[in-house]
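Technical note accompanying the year-one report. For the benefit of new consortium partners, we illustrate the data format agreed upon in the data management plan: each record pairs a sequence with a structure-token string. No post-processing was applied to the example shown here.
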Amino acid sequence: MASHRGARRLGRGVALAVCAAAAVACVSVGVAGRGDGHAISATPGSTSSPALPATDPQVAGERVPRGVRAPVRLAIPAIGVSTPLVGLGLEEDRTVEVPEDADRAGWFELGPPPGVTGSSVILGHVDSAAGPAVFARLEDLERGDVVEVGRADGSEVAFEVLRLELYPNAEFPAQRVYAASGARRLNLVTCAGDYDAGRGGYQSNLVVYTRQVART
């Protein structure tokens, strides 16, 4: 790994709070000490910005059957990520579920699976009480880096990174990130930016936008 990857940071300090990306918010899902001596305690589904509307047309469909198209594994060689994928839906308050295991990423099953028309979304924790989590180095990705998704039938689809965007929680572009139509894309989402325990945790979301490419 080239050393310049770690030089471009997005303002995230070393934080040991459990955090993951939801539809329009970062969600704290436990109690964890931070290096500054503070701690947070929150219940699953608590958010620092409004929940995704129940009528949002981009996520109002049914779960995709666990057939050949279902993604089961994610690999991002440039940052050393290799993780099984769990299925994610919506909580009762219409926020997006997050993986229970900080070392695993999850695919949002109410959207298109990777490799078909529309934007597939994979979410993961940035850190946990034990330290860095599955998407801890997501912000180190660069344009052209490859993202690989393995599917239930043994096939794989590949994507290349287009750009990284940092959004304050209240300005998360759900319609864009979870678009059900358009080009075949994969969007990776995690928490980022400033951490404020009094306001519920991380105050921003990092989105990595990618597009499908032919495997070589």
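Partners are asked to follow this layout when depositing records. The first strand starts at residue 19 and ends at 21.
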